[in-house]
Amino acid sequence: MVLTCHITDNDMPRNLDMTSLRSFVAIADAGGVTRAAGFLNLTQSAVSMQIKRLEEMLDVPLLDRSGRQVALTAAGEQLLGYARKMLALNDEAFARLTREEYEGEIVLGVPHDIVYPAIPQVLKRFAVEYPKMRVTLLSSFTRVLKAQFARGECDVILTTEAGVEPGGETIAELQLVWVGAPGGTCWKGRPLRLAYEHNCIFRQGVQAALDQAGIPWEMAVESDSTRTVEASVSADLAVHTVLAGSEPPYVERISHGGALPELSRMQVNLYHAQPAHSPTILALAEMLRRAYAQRAGGRPVVAERLDLTAAE
Q1: Are 109 and 167 in contact (CB under 8 A)?
Q2: How far apart are the first and last CA of the chain?
Q3: In this predicted model, what pLDDT tens digit does every residue of 229-255 receive, in sequence order?
């Protein structure tokens, strides 16, 4: 037995035209064909033709043209909700796949040692409040970040310094502390074995503090890699210093009982483009201020704020 299947035009799936739907929604929002044509940068006749095509496809009138102003019919009101959803999904898919979903980009520079724990929280909040803005995070040393900022390669940077330069503001002061391997004994040895990155801004001050305390030291580990330093310290091969609250995994603060010198407090400073070329730069800067004001172990600093009125 042979089965024959006949497919008619009525059985074929029908596709609504997105351009016609966009014109229909524009008419509903603008209250007329003429204004909708202006919004869409089309001629009035082109918009009218698209609506006519849409009505013919659905075989129902969508616009009530009997009055002085164009109004939606009952079918038009029903279609409007679907049209908005379809256009929103269409625009989202197009933007995502063509990488046009972002309206702008902010480059944020943060020193390696203070990325955690504050920065992920700030980035998460910023993404929620400004989903159309991309934030590119650069993690490097304070000296490198300040050079990049001076060249205009960063919009906002944080630094860890003993002071603050013109154009910046101090948003927190954090204690510099000794760290070593959990349960380690390397800190008891003399000369004291140190591990630092080449560009670390803390090392000269730490060396001066050791010299003043009369404690001999040697630079046991030097590297351009923060991970190398962390691995060496966690292996109890050397000691290191970090800002309180920023201790990396696999190391711990050394309870030296006065065997090592107390270290200075360091300033966490904020610099941003002046004048800010986007209000979102000011928003990100304010989020950073609040994050460090709330940070455990940090002492918020009431500093003279930059004059931001011109940038706004």
Answers
A1: no
A2: 80
A3: 999 999 999 999 999 988 988 999 999
Residues 224 and 146 in one domain: yes
Angle among Cα 135, 166, 200 to the nearest 5 degrees reads 65
182 and 133 share a domain? yes
Q: What global pTM score does this model have?
A: 0.62
Q: Are residues 225 and 310 in the same domain?
A: yes
155 and 297 within one domain: yes
Do the Cβ atoms of 40 and 23 come closer than 8 Å? Answer: yes
For the domain that residue 92 is a member of, what is the CATH number?
A: 1.10.10.10
Confidence of residue 9 (pLDDT cuts 50, 70, 90): low
> What is the average pLDDT across 141-165?
94
pLDDT computed for residue 69 by the predictor: 77
Does residue 300 register a pLDDT over 90? Answer: no
Which has the minimum average pLDDT: 63-67, 148-152, 178-182, 307-311? 307-311
Are both 291 and 154 inside the same structural domain?
A: yes
Domain count, the chain: 2
Pair (304, 163) in one structural domain: yes
No. of H helices and E strands in the chain? Answer: 9, 12
Distance CA 277, CA 158 (A): 18
Q: Provide the percentage of residues in the chain whose pLDDT is more than 90.
A: 62
> Cα–Cα distance between 131 and 102 in angstroms, integer?
8
* Same structural domain, 154 and 200: yes
Kindly list the distances between the CA atom of residue 271 and the CA atoms of 61, 183, 252, in Å, as whole numbers in the listed order: 59, 39, 31
Q: What whole-number distance in Å separates Cα of residue 247 and Cα of residue 254? A: 11
Q: Model confidence over 11-31: pLDDT tens digits? A: 555 789 999 999 999 888 877
Q: Which domain holds residue 281?
A: 103-312
Token pair belonging to 190: 């003399």
Q: What is the dihedral of CA 26, 28, 32, 38, to 10 degrees?
A: -10
